[in-house]
Design goal:
The chain is an alpha+beta fold. About 20% of the residues lie in helices and about 30% in strands.
């Protein structure tokens, strides 16, 4: 029997008490503890959070018109944790207990999360290489897929749905389905493109295969704002490329001057401007004793006019239709869409009615012709009725 400390109700264990118990344990088992491996210094867990709008999975504030377009929850995960917790932002001053409204546990440590700009889709990546895509509006999983058996998910990003083929098998006159891509980056360098459309079971497209050379490992993946088909990639050796994710094709390489190299290629510093038309990169001078520009210092910011790249001309000229990440078909929207469709099809209904009356008239004429033909045949049978024949009895002689 162990020592009974308490039931836990209105009872707290102070840090001094825990330290005292640890000291007693180490003193009693000192001869055995020397064979245990040394404990690594524990690091403080870091939080990652996302602001989300209300939905059926998180209904608090869903029926409040004032909350439309505003975040109602914040989702938080801690590094090294296996749970994703959702806290309501609509609590009143009387709610003193800051407890999560919803806790979603997972089978392994969460290493990456990605949220669509409309906060309707959430992607969760685990240490075992599994990606789960949630539809936060209806509270259902869209996809669960395993990308790797020996690598963790490092980063997840939702790409613009305009580059994803759409399923047009919708119930008229309002859409019910939309599809979008999730870009998944694994710790072994593999980059995959996942279609997270409702009911989609296609295999992910491999943008970059698994990399064994450490110098070739990817250290940066960023989508271009103005061209959703392209992503900017950087490797540990300092090379930078523009890649078309829809075709898994490298378009061009962004080259710095020969006197400079990318600053901290294991964690590059970059930024986009002018709706993706300008790329900013921080580079460091290879030889600090030589001045690339007088009094410029060892580090410089280089600007690349992506609009002037010939290989990108067809992408800039392409027209794209705006497509939502998810379709929210509320009852009011459905009724309005049905009424609009009925009004718009008034002329079509009149044409169908005229055609139907014309068909009915033809059917009546056909029926009348059949009746007349039957009457005529009945009259002809009455003329050939069986006549009376007088029979004479033959007498035998």
């Amino acid at each position: 029997m162990g020592e009974v400390i308490g039931t836990g109700v209105n009872h707290s264990l102070t840090s001094q008490h825990l330290e005292h118990r640890k000291a007693v344990f180490e003193h009693l088992h000192e001869q055995y503890l020397k064979y245990l491996p040394k404990e690594q210094d524990s690091t403080f867990p870091q939080p990652t959070f996302h602001f989300l709008s209300a939905g059926r999975m998180l209904p608090n504030g869903l029926e409040q018109p004032s909350q439309e377009g505003r975040p109602s929850y914040v989702g938080v995960r801690w590094s090294g944790g296996t749970q994703l917790m959702y806290y309501s932002l609509l609590k009143t001053a009387k709610d003193f207990e800051h407890k999560p409204e919803v806790v979603c546990p997972y089978s392994d440590v969460i290493t990456a999360t990605g949220l669509s700009p409309c906060t309707s889709l959430l992607a969760v990546g685990l240490t075992n290489g599994i990606v789960i895509v949630w539809d936060m509006h209806i509270g259902m999983q869209r996809r669960v897929i395993s990308l790797s058996d020996d690598a963790a998910i490092s980063k997840l990003m939702f790409l613009n749905p305009t580059i994803c083929p759409q399923d047009h098998d919708n119930y008229p006159p309002y859409g019910t389905k939309t599809s979008s891509y999730v870009l998944a980056w694994c710790s072994d360098g593999m980059v995959s493109l996942i279609n997270c459309g409702m009911g989609n079971t296609t295999q992910p497209v491999i943008i970059s295969p698994k990399i064994t050379d450490e110098n070739e490992l990817l250290t940066l993946i960023e989508p271009l704002t103005g061209i959703p088909e392209l992503i900017l990639t950087a490797r540990r050796n300092g090379t930078i490329f523009l890649v078309d994710v829809t075709k898994s094709h490298t378009l061009c390489q962004v080259v710095l001057p020969s006197t400079h190299e990318l600053t901290t290629p294991w964690e590059p510093i970059s930024a986009m401007g002018a709706d993706g038309q300008m790329l900013f990169l921080k580079a460091t001078q290879k030889n600090p004793n030589e001045d690339y520009i007088p009094d410029s210092g060892p580090s410089s910011i280089f600007v690349f006019q992506l609009r002037s790249f010939p290989s990108l001309d067809r992408y800039w000229r392409k027209e794209r239709e705006e497509i939502p990440y998810i379709t929210h078909s509320t009852m009011d929207k459905r009724i309005d869409a049905l009424l609009k469709e009925r009004i718009a099809q008034q002329a079509l209904r009149q044409a169908r009615m005229q055609k139907r009356w014309s068909n009915l008239k033809q059917e009546l004429d056909t029926i009348q012709q059949i009746r007349d033909a039957n009457r005529k045949r009945a009259g002809m049978r009455s003329e050939f009725e069986e006549s009376t024949i007088t029979r004479t009895t033959l007498l035998a002689k």
